[in-house]
Design a protein that fits this description.
The chain is an alpha+beta fold. The chain has helices at residues 10-17, 22-26, 34-42, 89-96, 125-130, 155-160, 175-182, 189-202; strands at 45-51, 57-63, 70-73, 76-80, 99-105, 112-122, 141-152. The chain has a single domain (21-202), classed as Electron Transport, Fmn-binding Protein, Chain A (Pnp Oxidase, Chain A). A hairpin with a 5-residue loop joins β1 and β2.
């Protein structure tokens, strides 16, 4: 169906929204810093996004005990493939196109963590044994070479009311702490976090 109002160029799109908020560009990293490592270690759930060689795209839920995605190094993650229905849509995609993205969530936390990179499916016996759960090793492990990492602000989850009255767990990195890490300590995290509730409430719509 044709839409006479369709936005079909970057110039037209950018004209609708204006310049990006500076902090949204400042926060992007190419490695897994301390707040990102901590966030991943506390996350029991993520969505794995993939695109196959045929152009098909999938968003697949992945979940287990907090920390089920392991940080192997400052630039690599390991995601075990637990038992499922053997459709293996995401894994089929990765064989054809290694580009992947992960969105990490923590119940009660408005911020999410976005990671993009390139995936490799491995049957490395040592790694599979390391990531075994209840005595069962995964058939494969997805190793992700990280290319981009940044947190997403809380607006989407606040608007959705996804967590309801679930309290924010103590110690989860805040938006201010992510920005402080991205600026090697130069950012005023305390003031930013203190003012965040009012700022977000005033800019939800």
């Amino acid at each position: 169906m044709s839409d006479p109002h369709a936005v079909e160029s970057l110039a037209a799109l950018e004209a609708l929204y204006g310049a990006a908020v500076p902090g949204s560009l400042l926060k992007v990293r190419r490695d897994i810093d301390a707040p990102s490592r901590d966030f991943i270690a506390r996350s029991p759930f993520c969505i794995l996004s993939t695109r196959g060689a045929d152009g098909a795209v999938h968003g697949t839920p992945r979940g287990d005990a907090p920390g089920f995605v392991t940080v192997l190094s400052g630039t690599e993650l390991a995601l075990p493939d637990r038992r499922g229905n053997n459709r293996i849509d995401a894994l089929r995609d990765i064989v054809g196109d290694p580009q992947v993205a992960l969105l990490f969530l923590i119940p009660g936390v408005g911020e999410t963590l976005r990671v993009a990179g390139r995936g490799t499916i491995t049957t490395d016996p040592a790694l599979c044994a390391r990531l075994a759960e209840q005595g069962k090793a995964p058939a494969t492990v997805l190793r992700i070479a990280v290319e981009e990492v940044f947190f997403q602000c809380a607006r989407a989850l606040l608007r959705s009311g996804l967590w309801g009255d679930t309290p924010r767990p103590a110690g989860v990195p805040t938006a201010g702490q992510f920005l402080k890490s991205a600026t090697a300590g130069a950012f005023d995290a305390e003031t930013y976090d203190r003012e965040a509730p009012a700022r977000l409430a005033a800019n939800l719509y």
